[in-house]
Amino acid sequence: MTGAASGGKGIGAADLLRLDQTGPLRFRALHNQDNGTGAIFGGQPIAQGLAAAQRTVPDWPVHSATGYYLRAGAIGVPVDYTVEVLRDGRRFASRRVLAEQAGRAIFEMLCSFHDAEDGPVHQHAVPPAMPDPETLPDIADFMRAHADRLPAILSGDFGLSFPIDLRLPDAEAAFFSPPASAERNYWMRMRTAAMLDDPAAHQCLLAFMSDFWVAATPGAPHLRVADAHRMATVTLNHSLWFHGATRADEWLLCHTESPWAGEGRGLVRGAIHDARGRLVASVTQDVSMRRL
C-alpha cells in the first residue's frame, strides 16, 4: 500500500499496531499519532517497531529495546519499518529496526527477545500507596476545567482526545504550585487495548505509553507544568526493559525521577508497576531541554 497515512489525537490500539507487510522484512504503518505539536508521538515508533520485529521471531516476549530519535516524524506520511535479523539463539533473538518516511530515517532501535526460563526472583520495594486512580480526575478533564488558568496551547492540546488515560495524584499542585522535585508519580492506561488479548500486543502498547510524560520530569524542578510550554523538551533516546506480562488497558503506576540535568540535556529514569505493586517495566530517557 502506498496511500497517505492518517493522523490524529485518538489513534486506537488496533490501528496503532496494524502493519502491512511490504517485503520479507519490511512493514508499513498507515496510522500516526499526533504528539500535539504536529509531529509523530515518540511512543509510536517504539511500539510499531516492536510489532514489526515480533513478526520475525519465535513466540517469545521482548525483554529490552533501545531506540534513537533521528528526525521528527510527519503526521501525514506512512512509516516504513525494516527489520534486520542480527541473531537467533537458543533463548535470545536480536533485531535491529529502522523506521523511515519517504526514504528518510526517523528512528532506529535495537531490541531483544527472550524465551523465559526459571531463575532468581526479586524486585525493589512496592512504591508508596497512591490514591485510587478511579477517584482522580482525568488530566484532559482537569485541564478543560481550569482552562482559564492555563495557556491556550496546553488546554487546547489536552482538550483533544489522546489515547492514554492519565491521572495525577495531585493535579492542582503539579500544575500550579512552585517547581517541585525532579520526581513524578502518575497512573496511566490505554482503554482501547481492552479489545486485544495477545500478550505481545500489550507489550507494544506498554512501550507506546512508556514515552508519555516521562520526558518532562527533568524540567519539573525548574518550572511548573502550567509553564511547560516555555521549554522545548525533545526525547533523544528511549530505553525500555520488560519484567513481566501485563495489560495496557489496566491501571499502571509510573514513578519517574531525574538524577541529573545540564548542558542542555536531562536524564530521566522510570519504574512502571501494575496495580498490585508488581514491577512490570523500567524506562530511561535522555532528553534535550531548551528554554523558549
Notes on the structure:
The chain has 292 residues and is of the alpha+beta class. The protein has two domains: 6-114, Hotdog Thioesterase (Thiol Ester Dehydrase, Chain A, Roll), CATH 3.10.129; 133-291, Roll (Thiol Ester Dehydrase, Chain A). It has helices spanning 13-16, 43-54, 139-145, 152-159, 171-176, 199-209, and strands at residues 6-8, 19-23, 26-29, 31-33, 62-69, 79-88, 92-101, 104-114, 165-167, 183-189, 231-242, 252-262, 265-274, 279-291. The protein has a twelve-stranded antiparallel beta sheet, covered by helices on one side. A hairpin with a 2-residue loop joins strand 2 and strand 3 (26-29). Helix 2 runs antiparallel to helix 6 and helix 3 (139-145) crosses helix 4. The longest helix has 12 residues, at 43-54. The mean pLDDT is 92. This is Thioesterase family protein. Residues 37-114 form the Acyl-CoA thioesterase-like N-terminal HotDog domain. Residues 158-287 form the Acyl-CoA thioesterase-like C-terminal domain.
Question: TL;DR?
Answer:
By secondary structure, the protein is α+β, with helices and mostly antiparallel strands.
**At the third CATH level, what is the topology name of the largest domain?**
Thiol Ester Dehydrase, Chain A
Care to count the β-strands? 14
- Relevant CATH superfamily of the largest domain: Hotdog Thioesterase
> Overall pLDDT, averaged?
92
> So what's the overall shape?
globular
Low-pLDDT segments, ≥5 res: none
What is the CATH architecture descriptor of the largest domain? Answer: Roll
Helix content: 10-25%
Strand order across the biggest sheet?
A: 2-3-6-7-8-5-11-14-13-12-10-9
Largest sheet: 12 strands, antiparallel
| Helix-strand topology string | EHEEEHEEEEHHEHEHEEEE
**Structural class category:** alpha+beta
Instruction: Determine the oligomeric state from the structure.
Output: single chain
**Cα end-to-end separation:** 40 Å
Rg over alpha carbons: 18 Å
Number of helices: 6
CATH class of the largest domain: Alpha Beta
Number of spatially distinct domains = 2
